[in-house]
Amino acid sequence: MTLDRRTFLRAGAAALAVPARASTRTAPLSGAIRAIAFDAFPIFDARPIAGACEREFPGRGAALIGAWRTRQFEYQWLRALGGRYVDFWQATADALIFACESIGVAAPSAKRDALMQEWLRLDVWPDVPDTLRELKRRGFTLAFLSNATPNILGANLVRAGLASLFDHSISTDAIRTFKPDPRAYQLGVDTLNLRREEILFVAFAGWDVAGAKWFGYPTFWNNRGAAPAERLDGVPDGTGATLRDLLGLLGNK
Fold first, then answer.
1. 181 given a catalytic annotation
2. Exactly one of 39, 87, 181, 237 is catalytic; which is it?
3. Using 50, 70 and 90 to split pLDDT, how confident is the model at 9?
4. How far is residue 20's CA from residue 100's CA, in Å, rounded to a whole number?
5. 30-45+123-250 belongs to which homologous superfamily?
6. Does pTM surpass 0.85?
7. In this structure, are residues 37 and 143 in contact, taking their beta carbons and an 8 Å threshold?
8. Which of 6, 54, 204, 209 has its CA 20 to 30 A from that of 228?
9. What is the mean pLDDT of the chain?
10. Any idea which architecture 48-120 has in CATH?
């Protein structure tokens, strides 16, 4: 698999963009969908981490979060390609050290630790709880399929009071790789014991849309940042600014 490096860097920066203003939907998917697998960030709002960077480093927060998120994605990608795996937490911590050095700020361990702890205190987007409850009411199996560690996923689900809505919490850490490695998407098939055509994948980043479509998942792009479509030959089955648009894509059940 060959992925464009600049595409990954743009995708990481787009994760902190303002909420999207528009949504598009195709015709409802067929009744074949039995489960919905979410990336972490259609559920969890990572934007407050930028505010934490500004609190710790006044006047340098924007530069820091930009450098950090870019290197965070890049380190995951490069380590997966190079066979030098560390988990999401360690890759993120390493990226933070590099980001601080790259913008020239002194970052004692206490400040870095404070920023890393923000990954365990993420809020959910406002539209998430009601949408998840409606999906459960309709009988769908709900799961995460994320690069984030089980600890990050679990801590934030418990904090949000939504743990009971998820049937599975699948981290690519289980096989020591990161999306968009096809083996990462295969975890959803193996864990849910369903065909890929029966699992709708909900992506936050455009590159994750492409990876899921290449694998063969029906895909919804929760494009909260109004990002342009990636030129990676992976067109989502539906796109929406919030998870509520997902309900329309699935039709009535």
1. no
2. 39
3. very low
4. 29
5. HAD superfamily/HAD-like (3.40.50.1000)
6. yes
7. yes
8. 54
9. 89
10. Orthogonal Bundle (1.10)
